[in-house]
Amino acid sequence: MKTKIIISLAVLVVFSVMVISCQALMKAADVGAQIAGATGVIDQNTANAISISSRAIGSAAEEITPEQEYYIGRAVAANILSSYRLWSGNAPLTAYLNQICAAITINSPRPDIYNGYHVAILDSTEINAFATSGGHIFVTRGLINAARSEEALAGVIAHEIAHIQLQHSIKAIKNSRVTQALMVTGTSAAGAAAGMNVNQLTDVFNESVGEIVSTLVSNGYSQTQEFEADNTAMSLMAAAGYNPSGLLDMLRQLSSVQTSSSGFGKTHPTPAQRITNAEKSVGSYKVADTSSSRQSRFTTATR
Question: In degrees rounded to 5, what are phi and psi of residue 175?
Fold first, then answer.
């Protein structure tokens, strides 16, 4: 009987994560566990364990501040730079990419973040790009070489900015931290008996943040999030005066040069899938085609 009650409580906690606020969950689970313990439905150690775990879950899913976003992102950037080398062979090209980034972000819904947006070039022939929650945007030399216009480069940068502004990595971290809390729940009775406190349980999440974000970079976001980033990128491009079809041009180019075993091919839906998704909404943006006026500076910057 006690086992069934404990299982029911666990199921209730999991379900509650999806349907009520974390603060409400934390309070309800905490109070429920203490009542169950006081009335003898479950033993006091188990009641304390559930109570501790519920508080840890609430702590794990608290709103992440802009400062925390930045420092999490900086840790992600460090992970990226442990596998890739920064390329400093063309400072004007780096400045050019940052100008494109600035034009997009200044016209975006979130023009300011804790330490700003910064684009850097990775010394790799791989066709790839990364963005961290801290505003770091990395573009490989291989991807730059694959672009045929400033609009195409703007599409790539806008896609990465979209991941930042949609807080995809932060949302993934929150989900992972809550999942970790639920995993801890299974062993909390032993921890509570040993005197483990909420701060120690919460440390489990902090220690795993680097691994979680590194996994995101290696495995990629969900297909839904990638499509959302493409759709948002087109909106950002239009707001900055770029023709959103530049993203489609880049995707068509990628379909002819990228492989499925590395770079975008490893972590993103296929270019064909992304093109099909983007074509659904690209026609809704009425932007004058001024790409020819930028072709000269694109050629000068990328040659």
Answer: -60, -40
Q: Which of 59-68, 102-111, 125-134, 190-199 has the lowest mean pLDDT?
A: 190-199
Distance, CA of 15 to CA of 10 (rounded, Å)? 9
| Spans of all domains in the chain | 2-64+169-214, 66-167+220-302
Per-residue pLDDT of 103-138, as tens digits, reads 999 999 999 999 999 999 999 999 999 999 899 999
| Helical packing angle, 223-239 and 150-165, nearest 10° | 120
| DSSP strand pairing (129-131 vs 118-122) | unpaired
Number of CB atoms found within 10 A of residue 271's CB: 21
* Residue of 84, 60, 64 lying closest to 72 (CA atoms): 64
DSSP state string for 160-228: HHHHHHTTHHHHHHHHHHHHHHHHHHTTHHHHHHTT--HHHHHHHHHHHHHHHHHHHHHH---HHHHHH
Four-point Cα dihedral 50, 53, 55, 60, nearest 10: -160
Reduce the DSSP state of residue 128 to 3 states and report it. coil
Handedness of CA 192, 197, 200, 202 (dihedral sign): positive
CB atoms within 10 A of CB 131: 28
| Token pair listed for 199 | 């701060």
Q: What Cα–Cα distance (Å) separates residue 161 from each residue in 54, 114, 133, 208?
A: 34, 14, 9, 25
The whole-angstrom separation of Cα 270 and Cα 144 is 19
What's the CA gap between 17 and 150, in Å, rounded?
A: 44
